[in-house]
Amino acid sequence: MAAKAQFSRRRFFSTAAALLGGWPFLSRLQGGRAVAPTVQRRGTQLVVSSANGLEAAKTTYRLMSRGSDTLEAAISGVNLVENDPDDMSVGYGGLPNEDGVVELDSAVMHGPTHKAGAVAALQNIKNPSRVAQLVLETTDHVLLVGKGALRFAKANGFKEEELLTKKSRERWLKWKRDLSRRDDWLSDDEEDRGIARKVARPTGTIHVAAMNSDGDISCVTTTSGLAWKIPGRVGDSPIIGAGLYVDNAIGSCGSTGRGEANLQNLCCFAAVELMRTGLAPEEAGLEVLRRVASHTTEKRLLDDQGRPNFGLKFYLIAKDGRYAGATMWGPSKFAVADRRGTRLEECAVLYQREN
Q: What is the DSSP track for 150-192?
């Protein structure tokens, strides 16, 4: 009994230190700005999404209210964005690779079964999230890529179609005309390498995570990836642990932003593991952002103050109903749907942009 009591005291003080002392320290040391912790009452439904998923979050919440499984509801939500030709970051109308071909990535993860499915570099299929769902449900695999993913989709009845719209084609042609240092081929010249990537290019992804009244959590991420990427490039979105991760006993995390940073740090897995230790969602998200910042050392990826010059955001749900968005650069918002309705809320911020 004494040994057990000693362990309990250590765990209590460790958790208390993280919750009471660690958070203000992180804010002072790294410039992180906290937002007021948000806690849901147990037994209530919750959806958290990237800001471009406001309607997706609303749809996901409504479907869960009607008894839909958390993963099915979340996928139905992101399908709205995948099918929207005016959203050039996801699905139909997504911005293409450097050859003018739209390549899509998506992953899904089902908390109750801890199963996942994903597809990468998928061409000519509008809803990669649905193909990823079938990988989860009908195969012993997690990830299918390229031509194999396309064959799998077609075998399951998906129809090939042109994903490049007039609008997205015009954007690609403009990039081709302006092509100079805006591609992903690094120069041999060290000075040139230092500035080659400072021209911003369109990026975009949607992530939706859903928790039902039983506390079951699932999530989905889908994207057309970085605009004008090298053909075959795969970002973090379809990689379990990088672009999204769920542990049904702990919570979930999904991400949008620079995929290479997520791949190099397995950010979403790390965030969920930090929540396992007792950190609140916003604390876990900011801590992972601090790690990414400390690992970013290449000149081309830093601003004049030595901070990462790229965007990175996390969307987190804890099993007890707490949730948060966390961003490398603020101000920034994320979407929430719960009993109070669907809305945008402020992310916790590591670095604040100057006006």
A: HHHHHHTTPPP-----HHHHHHHHHHHHH-SS-SS---SSHHH
State whether residue 312 is helix, strand or coil.
strand
Query: For 109-139, what is each residue's pLDDT tens digit?
Result: 999 999 999 999 999 999 999 999 999 999 9
Q: Which positions are catalytic? A: 205
Three-state DSSP at 339 gives coil
Q: Does residue 112 have a cis bond before it (omega within 30 degrees)?
A: no
Which residue in the block uniquely carries the two structure tokens 């004494």?
2
The model's pTM is: 0.84
What does the alpha-carbon distance between residue 245 and residue 241 come to, in Å, rounded to a whole number?
Answer: 5
Q: What is the pLDDT of residues 251-290, one digit of tens each?
A: 999 999 999 999 999 999 999 999 999 999 999 999 999 9
**What is the full DSSP assignment across 47-64?**
EEEEGGGHHHHHHHHHHH
Q: Which CATH number fits domain 27-352: 3.40.50.2000, 3.40.50.1010, 3.60.20.30, 3.40.50.410?
A: 3.60.20.30
* The dihedral sign for the CA sequence 92, 95, 97, 100: positive
| Max Cα distance, the chain (Å) | 74
Return d(Cα 232, Cα 226) in angstroms, integer.
Answer: 11
Q: Which two tokens stand for residue 58?
A: 């609303």
Main-chain dihedrals φ then ψ at residue 15, nearest 5 degrees: -65, -40
